[in-house]
Write a structure and sequence with these properties.
Alpha-Beta Plaits, 7-stranded mixed beta sheet, 3 domains, 4-stranded antiparallel beta sheet
């Protein structure tokens, strides 16, 4: 699965679109990133840019943007309402999918180091990327702003984390950080009262509401010994919020910023809003996402609402998203298009159609054509995907079988395992063809000089190894799926036992077919230790799959006889 990081740099220019475009053009020169949003502000004289991509690509694009900003923005002439200390004021990296915060921190520090060393711009690392607790807070790093930098660099405790401790009059300083994903989320109410919407927001948000003596609305505000207002905390962590009236829709909304969706996910915020609104005689009618959301957040929401219904969670990604959209009422005010709101879908590579996007007949026609790919490897992966899909179907039918309500979670767990295996095998359908194309590309490399010959031979070797590894993965996942078919044959809905049997036959065919591809591709690999290891492990998987098939077919035959 591809790792994705979001980057949200803030540049100290919000009025000259030519300068802004020069910066964003640099981002778009990097393959593997997609520019999602450019939001300039005239009063703040600041532009917030959002782009996303794989970690290495994001780091490269961010560096190029910071470099261009240092060339086209002169901080000595900058004026604006927003606090700032550099041409690139802040540059946070945000983990989106399949990457941990710890990994994101490493990428942020790598970017900071490069900015400091190659561009000679002082850099402070903040939030999760900070080296000290004091520097976690961006406000501390930026205290005194651009005008106070020269004095700050004279203090040893404020030496930059990277780059020279020297005032850069043109570029100032930059803060590079790693932070959690922020979701801007509005919840719709069946009222026009801003005051009531505010009250619900205060019930929910982490900061809560001001504490008062006696009457909670008109009573005297309670202050601590330092004269600061005392707050009664709200019910949810990592949530900021207010209430407002939206004239365009004619309703009041609770406007929330979910600053860490791993602490308070979208569906938890929605459910809490429903609960607090109902306590005040108000009903939540739906909700609205402002900006983008990671795929996982939508899938988690879909699973949450299915779990409440005691329904199987092992359904397709698209179905989970439909459940999330309907349950959260994301289509209450206007149509919700996942392709435009989910980050991963926004950056899908649309260069060339995937085999798995084809119709069944088109896939068959493509396979039957004179082109050598897709071949046996892709077909083996697809047969394996069909096999585990049948096992998953039996699990879902069993989960919803009348009279088996107390077993829904047991079968849901099997269905979830099946969906995960199906998704990986479908990925391997196209990946096997890509592996073949890598070999062809390697053979097409120039071979004039000795250096070119060496690079070509190395590329052929690596591509040939990969062409063995992909069908080997098909073998492992197809064999793994047979556990599901066996469980469904033994304990699943007896009326669907034959489907579990057919699934096992498909899985066995996938294992044997994939092993043929492992063996034939071995002839192009010179690393005999690598070859022997995969062939030996593959032979073991094939033998185990044949035994598993016999056992599952035996169980299926006995069940059919007893019906």
């Amino acid at each position: 699965m591809k790792q994705l990081i979001e980057c949200v740099p803030n540049f100290s220019e919000g009025r000259d679109m030519n300068i802004i475009k020069q910066i964003t053009d640099q981002i778009e020169t990097v393959e593997g990133v997609k520019l999602l949003d450019v939001d300039p502000g005239k009063a703040t004289n600041r532009t917030v840019v959002t782009f996303v991509g794989t970690p290495d690509a994001v780091v490269e694009a961010a560096f190029r943007a910071v470099k261009k900003a240092s060339e086209v923005i002169d901080m000595s002439k900058h004026k604006g309402e927003h606090p700032r200390m550099g041409a690139t004021d802040v540059c946070p990296l945000v983990p989106v999918s399949n990457i941990s915060m710890e990994e994101t921190v490493e990428h942020a520090r790598r970017l900071a180091k490069r900015i400091g060393e190659e561009l000679e711009i002082p850099v402070y690392c903040y939030e999760n990327a900070a080296f000290t607790e004091e520097r976690r807070n961006l406000a501390n790093c930026r205290k005194g702003e651009y005008e106070g930098l020269a004095d700050r660099f004279n203090k040893p405790e404020w030496k930059p984390d990277f780059g020279p401790a020297k005032f850069n009059a043109k570029s100032g300083a930059t803060a590079v950080g790693a932070r959690d994903f922020l979701v801007a989320y509005n919840i719709n109410l069946n009222t026009t009262s801003t005051r009531r919407a505010n009250a619900i927001a205060f019930d929910i948000r982490e900061r809560g509401r001001v504490k008062r003596e006696g009457d909670p609305i008109t009573g005297k505000i309670v202050k601590d010994e330092k004269g600061n207002k005392v707050y009664i905390p709200g019910s949810l962590k990592a949530v900021k919020g207010i209430g407002w009236y939206i004239e365009e829709y004619g309703i009041a909304q609770i406007s929330l910023n979910l600053t860490n969706i791993s602490i308070t996910p979208v569906h938890v915020a929605f459910e809490e809003a429903c609960k607090k609104a109902e306590a005040r005689g108000i009903r939540v009618t739906g909700s609205e996402l402002v900006g983008l959301i990671p795929l996982k957040a939508m899938l988690d929401a879909g699973k949450h609402f299915l779990r409440k219904q005691k329904r199987s969670l092992g359904i397709s990604e698209s179905e989970l998203i439909k459940i999330a959209v309907k349950s959260l009422g994301l289509d209450d005010l206007k149509p919700f298009n996942p392709k435009e709101k989910i980050i991963e879908y926004m950056i899908e590579d649309d260069k060339g159609k995937k085999l798995t996007d084809m119709s069944l007949s088109a896939f068959a026609d493509e396979t039957a054509s004179e082109s050598p790919a897709p071949g046996g490897g892709s077909i083996s992966a697809y047969v394996g995907a069909l096999g585990v899909s049948l096992g998953t179907m039996v699990a879902n039918l069993s989960s919803h079988k009348r009279g088996w309500d107390d077993r829904w979670e047991e079968f849901s767990n099997w269905a979830e395992k099946g969906q995960a295996l199906k998704d990986e095998l479908l990925f391997l359908v196209d990946e096997d063809t890509r592996a073949f194309n890598k070999i062809m590309d390697a053979f097409g490399m120039p071979k004039g000089s000795e250096e070119e010959k060496k690079a070509r031979l190395n590329a052929i070797e690596e591509a040939s190894k990969y062409a063995m590894e992909i069908p080997f993965r098909v073998m492992k996942k197809s064999f793994e799926s047979m556990e599901i078919m066996k469980a469904m044959a033994e304990t699943g809905n007896p009326n669907s036992v034959s489907d579990a049997g057919v699934g096992a036959l498909c899985a066995r065919a996938a294992v044997r077919g994939a092993y043929m591809n492992v063996r034939i591709n071995a002839s192009g690999v010179n690393d005999k230790d690598f070859v022997n290891k995969l062939l030996e492990e593959g032979a073991g998987i094939e033998a185990n799959a044949l035994e598993a098939e016999k056992e599952i077919v035996r169980i299926v035959d006995e069940k059919i006889k007893s019906l």
